[in-house]
Design goal:
heterodimer, A: 119 residues, mainly beta, Immunoglobulin-like, globular, B: 110 residues, six-stranded mixed sheet, five-stranded antiparallel sheet, 0% helix, 55% strand
Chain lengths: 119, 110
């Protein structure tokens, strides 16, 4: 079974702090994703990465950056945390999309989420 | 960019009843996927239906896809209390990440 592990289930930080959220997957997946989930807004994509050192902006990248130094690890960084970044953060991984039609038909595998509170 | 939209937003039923959730989307897709999320946990993939398929089954789950209406439905038969969760549809276009809807919250009471 694919396992996506997020380093913390709950995290409390202060405004202005630099915050690191870590995600590790064990299935050698090329694609990794960071979403945030807020009531009434569903899941919104922050950033994704399709290879080591590669990254693409999602729908809401402002205030965030990411790092992918190793294939199995994808980090989300809040450069200067603000209260409006209080949210549930979900990491996911998947096989790449460019191996033909069949590979595009694969699910994303999610971690259990990090509930981040910025005070 | 919200693509899928689930309906209803919330659904309450008794154990043993069937639950039907709908998803509408706006643009052409490669496939449509349904996920479940238990409270406070991550999303779990349930079923994927390709754009050239019309119906798919997995255990007590039945998914239909109507590309002409840009809509899909998820049917859970003989619901159990353990089916209480939020259900999300997600659409996949070529070369893009999945786009998720806002979800349907299902409550199954015993």
């Amino acid at each position: 079974d694919v396992k996506v592990t997020q380093s913390s289930r709950y995290l409390v930080k202060r405004t202005g702090e630099k915050v690191f959220l870590e995600c590790v997957q064990d299935m050698d997946h090329e694609n990794m994703f960071w979403y945030r989930q807020d009531p009434g807004l569903g899941l919104r994509l922050i950033y994704f990465s399709y290879d080591v050192k590669m990254k693409e902006k999602g729908d809401i990248p402002e205030g965030y950056s990411v790092s992918r130094e190793k294939k199995e690890r994808f980090s989300l960084i809040l450069e200067s945390a603000s209260t409006n970044q209080t949210s549930m953060y979900l990491c996911a991984s998947s096989v790449p999309w460019d191996r033909g039609f069949s590979s595009g038909n694969q699910p994303q595998h999610f971690g259990d989420g990090t509930r981040l509170s910025i005070l | 960019s919200q693509q899928g939209e689930e309906d209803p937003q919330a659904l309450s039923i008794q154990e043993g009843e069937n639950a039907t959730m709908n998803c509408s989307y706006k643009t052409s897709i490669n496939n449509l996927q349904w996920y479940r999320q238990n409270s406070g946990r991550g999303l779990v993939h349930l079923i994927l239906i390709r754009s050239n398929e019309r119906e798919k089954h997995s255990g007590r789950l039945r998914v239909t896809l109507d590309t002409s209406k840009k809509s899909s439905s998820l049917l859970i038969t003989a619901s159990r209390a353990a089916d209480t969760a939020s259900y999300f549809c997600a659409t996949k276009q070529a070369g893009t990440a999945l786009i998720f809807g806002k979800g349907t919250t299902l409550s199954v009471s015993s």
